[in-house]
Structures are given as C-alpha cells and as structure tokens.
C-alpha cells in the first residue's frame, strides 16, 4: 500500500510514499538501484520528499525510536543554520554536506562490495571548500566515519537500517533546505 505524506498508518505518523518498503534494505535497493545517474536519483528523491518537511521526518523517527541515530545531523543543522539566522551560505554548506553524505550512504547500500564508496577524501576539491572550514561542526565520528589516513574518512557502519535512515534523512534535509533556499531567493528578488 502506498502512502502520501499526508496519509498515515495509524492516524498520527506522516509518511513518505512507500515508507515501509523504503525503510527495508531490499526496498531501498529496489527503489534507487535502477537509477542511472545523478539526475535520476535527484528525480526519485524529489518525488519522494518534495512534500515532506524536515520536522515531520524527525517526528516520525522519534516515534519509531530512531531519533538518536539522526541526532548528530539534527544538531549540526541547528548549529549551522538556526531558524532565526537563515543565511544562504550556511544553507548551501548544509546542502553540500547532506549531498556528500547521502551519496556515501546510498552507494554503501547499493554497492556494498566496493569499499572505495565508503571513503571521503577531504583533499578532493569538490569537498574541501565546505568540509575544511566547518569540519569541527560536522558530526563525522558520530555518523560512524573514522579517520583512516591523514585526509580520509571511512564510513564503518555495518547496520543497513541505520544507513538507510541516514541516507533518507540527508535526502529529506537536502530537499527541505533546497525549498527554503529557493523561497529565500524568490523573496530577495522581489
């Protein structure tokens, strides 16, 4: 049975479409395994999470006793972009961070046999610009990343359920902040 964000199984939990299936290892792999490139993935994620608010997702995970798993992401989000002090730069930094982590988590689930997909090279130009200045605020260790070299972080979590929740949370936060950034840009042009 497919659910929309506004429907619930018990009258109180807002859910994303196919929530129960997506939260399983096989369901996650089936949903994202057919994506050929980043635009396919982004389209799939947008279709799933377009209407889901970050706070709704946090509440769902809290009710399912998974909040402690995502607490580091929530705390980082609150540090870098407090509601009262929205800045475009902080929002973009968070979106880059969510995108990076979601990519690692998704690839870990879809390609568990490729260990290189678990590694973040902090010297990579794409990541260096936003990791370096904010590294102390980013909860790599709490999210099961260990330093495996002078500039390498390796994702070491082996629980697929936790990895799915991390991946979905990063996707939802990314899409939520993208809407917030688009809204902010639209307001500033008027």
Describe the structure.
The protein is mainly alpha-helical and 190 residues long. The protein has a domain of 123 residues: Methane Monooxygenase Hydroxylase, Chain G, domain 1. A three-stranded antiparallel β-sheet has the order 1-3-2, with no helix packed on it. A hairpin with a 2-residue loop joins strand 2 and strand 3. Helix 4 runs antiparallel to helix 5 and helix 6 runs antiparallel to helix 8. The longest helix has 30 residues. The radius of gyration is 16 Å and the shape is globular. The relative contact order is 0.15.
Backbone CA Rg: 16 Å
Please count the helical segments.
8
Strand order of the largest sheet: 1-3-2
Order of helices and strands: HHHHHHEHEEH
Overall CATH class of the domain at 67-189: Mainly Alpha
* CATH fold-type name of the domain at 67-189: Methane Monooxygenase Hydroxylase, Chain G, domain 1
How many β strands by DSSP? 3
Based on CA inertia axes, which overall geometry fits? globular
Our measurement of the CA-to-CA distance between the termini, rounded to an integer number of angstroms, reads 43 Å
Largest beta-sheet characterization: 3 strands, antiparallel
Q: What portion of residues belong to β-strands?
A: 5-15%
What would you call the structural class? Answer: mainly alpha
Give the fraction of residues assigned to helices: 55-70%
Low-confidence stretches: 1-14
Proper CATH architecture of the domain at 67-189: Up-down Bundle
Mean pLDDT: 80
């Amino acid at each position: 049975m497919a659910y929309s964000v506004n429907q619930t199984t018990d009258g109180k939990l807002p859910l994303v479409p196919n929530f129960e299936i997506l939260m399983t290892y096989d369901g996650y792999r089936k949903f994202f395994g057919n994506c050929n490139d980043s635009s396919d993935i982004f389209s799939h994620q947008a279709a799933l999470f377009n209407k889901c608010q970050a706070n709704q997702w946090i509440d769902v995970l809290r009710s399912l006793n998974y909040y402690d798993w995502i607490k580091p992401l929530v705390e980082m989000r609150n540090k870098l972009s407090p509601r009262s002090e929205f800045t475009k730069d902080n929002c973009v930094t968070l979106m880059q961070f969510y995108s990076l982590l979601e990519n690692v988590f998704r690839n870990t689930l879809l390609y568990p046999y490729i260990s290189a997909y678990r590694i973040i090279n902090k010297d990579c130009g794409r990541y260096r610009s936003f990791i370096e200045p904010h590294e102390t605020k980013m909860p790599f260790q709490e999210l099961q990343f260990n330093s495996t070299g002078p500039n390498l972080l390796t994702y070491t979590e082996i629980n697929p359920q936790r990895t799915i929740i991390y991946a979905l949370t990063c996707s939802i936060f990314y899409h939520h902040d993208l809407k917030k950034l688009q809204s902010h840009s639209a307001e500033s042009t008027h």
